[in-house]
């Protein structure tokens, strides 16, 4: 076990820095343009009638649909109007008797219950009065809030998917590897992950371990908002990304976090471009992309952060002696986590077999312990 440094940043702190460093669009202030609803409305399909006439038979004058002008009818004693959900109530009616509580008898209908005024009626202004503040400015987007903007006739901000570039780094990455070389598996993996998380992805060719080539790629990132790199952020002689970013004047949000795997993780802002410098080992690259890309996308899209963690019990103990929290690969069986015999951060085979990763705090969790875990996607 390597000796950890006390200065490694806890995951929560790294996530907080990332969240706070990114700009976020928000919903503008929403005020009610008119009463909501703007008239009394039927909330059921049935007939609109005057409740005080009780169960007396009613003659049907016609039908009002959602969107019909209710001025077409006036409900007078002994009459009613068939009405569909969402239609405005005709004058003279104060209740809806639903279809299920009506008996048709020739030209007439008979309520089978005693209606009360207001039954199945959404009254004018029930939700809001014209001018009411419905949402303060600065609220994150979600689909319901966009619906509210639409309802109030406010412009809907154009929101597109965040464009993410994916570029592996490493001289060892070649399409037809000799025994001392490998294929680029991180590139396709990270592109797939970003796609699953809702990004618009551009998978690029792998970059060589060459500071000039890295600098050129970072200086001209093209039309992307986030660059996901893998490799080259650790302590090796060929790990150039941190120094290249610094030389380019990037703002390093964090480098090196208290997590296993993922210690070398780096995040930086180069102008508007967020660079997530993932470690090269596949399990580290995958987990750190899962941990950091999801909130970055949410933030840049103006959404609330979703908590990706679930909780379950461990079937067997996971031994862990280090002072970094460990993310350990597990299979989920009948709602419980079975730790897999993972062989560390280079073990792509176990990553591909895992259902998720259990969070193991030092010094390790016993069988039956309830832990939080991160499902793979
Ligand atoms: P690095 O972080 O660059 O030192 O890489 C750590 C380990 O991950 C090394 O064994 C690399 O060969 C491996 N690795 C780096 N990039 C990739 C990649 N794109 N696909 C698969 N393995 C990689
Ligand atoms: Mg490398």
Topology:
Elements: E1 9-10, H1 11-21, E2 30-31, E3 41-42, E4 46-49, E5 58-64, E6 79-83, E7 95-98, E8 102-105, E9 108-111, E10 121-122, E11 133-135, H2 143-151, E12 163-168, H3 186-196, E13 200-203, H4 211-219, E14 226-230, H5 241-247, E15 251-255, E16 257-258, E17 266-270, E18 273-278, H6 282-301, E19 310-314, E20 318-319, E21 326-333, E22 336-339, H7 348-353, E23 356-360, E24 364-365, E25 370-375
Parallel strand pairs: 1-16, 5-6, 12-13, 12-14, 14-18, 19-22
Antiparallel strand pairs: 2-11, 3-10, 4-6, 4-7, 5-9, 8-9, 15-17, 17-18, 19-25, 20-24, 21-22, 21-23, 23-25
Helix pairs in contact: 3-6
The structure holds adenosine monophosphate (AMP) and magnesium ion (MG).
Explain how this protein is built:
By secondary structure, the protein is an alpha+beta fold. The chain has helices at 11-21, 143-151, 186-196, 211-219, 241-247, 282-301, 348-353, and strands spanning 9-10, 30-31, 41-42, 46-49, 58-64, 79-83, 95-98, 102-105, 108-111, 121-122, 133-135, 163-168, 200-203, 226-230, 251-255, 257-258, 266-270, 273-278, 310-314, 318-319, 326-333, 336-339, 356-360, 364-365, 370-375. A six-stranded mixed β-sheet has the order 7-4-6-5-9-8, with no helix packed on it. It has a six-stranded mixed β-sheet with strand order 13-12-14-18-17-15, with helices on both faces. Strands 19-22-21-23-25 form a five-stranded mixed β-barrel. α3 runs parallel beside α6 (282-301). It is elongated, with a radius of gyration of 30 Å. The two termini are 29 Å apart. The structure holds adenosine monophosphate and magnesium ion. Adenosine monophosphate binds at residues 168, 170, 172-173, 182, 184-187, 230-232, 234, 236, 239, 279-282, 346.
């Amino acid at each position: 076990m390597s000796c950890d440094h006390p200065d490694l940043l806890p995951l929560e702190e790294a996530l907080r820095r990332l969240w706070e460093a990114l700009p976020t669009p928000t919903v503008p202030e929403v005020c009610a343009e008119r009463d909501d609803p703007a008239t009394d409305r039927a909330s059921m399909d049935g007939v609109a009638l005057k409740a005080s006439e009780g169960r007396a038979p009613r003659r049907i004058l016609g039908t009002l649909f959602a969107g019909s002008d209710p001025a077409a009818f006036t409900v007078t004693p002994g009459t009613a109007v068939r009405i569909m959900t969402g239609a405005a109530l005709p004058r003279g009616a104060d209740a809806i008797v639903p279809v299920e509580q009506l008996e048709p008898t020739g030209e007439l209908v008979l309520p089978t219950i005693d209606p009360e005024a207001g039954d199945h009626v959404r009254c004018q202004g029930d939700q809001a009065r014209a001018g009411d503040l419905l949402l303060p400015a600065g609220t994150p987007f979600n689909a319901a809030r966009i619906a509210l903007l639409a309802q109030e006739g406010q412009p809907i901000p154009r929101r597109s998917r965040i464009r993410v570039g994916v570029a592996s780094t490493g001289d060892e990455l070649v399409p037809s590897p000799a025994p001392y070389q490998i294929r680029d598996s991180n590139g396709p993996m990270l592109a797939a992950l970003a796609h699953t998380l809702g990004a618009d992805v551009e998978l690029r060719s792998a970059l060589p371990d060459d500071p000039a080539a890295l600098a050129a790629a970072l200086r001209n990132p093209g039309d992307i908002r986030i660059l996901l790199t893998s490799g080259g952020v650790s302590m090796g002689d060929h790990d150039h990304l941190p120094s290249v970013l610094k030389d380019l004047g990037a703002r390093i949000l964090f480098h090196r976090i208290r997590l296993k795997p993922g210690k070398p993780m780096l995040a930086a802002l180069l102008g508007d471009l967020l660079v997530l410098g993932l470690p090269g080992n596949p399990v580290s690259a995958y987990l750190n992309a899962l941990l950091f890309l999801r909130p970055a996308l949410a933030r840049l899209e103006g959404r609330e952060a979703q908590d990706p963690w679930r909780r379950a019990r461990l079937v067997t103990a996971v031994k862990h002696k280090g002072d970094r929290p460990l993310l350990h690969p597990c299979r989920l069986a009948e709602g419980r986590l079975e730790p897999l015999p993972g062989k560390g951060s280079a073990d792509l085979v176990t990553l591909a077999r895992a259902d998720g990763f259990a969070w193991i705090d030092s010094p390790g969790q016993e069988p039956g312990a309830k832990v939080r875990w991160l499902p793979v996607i």
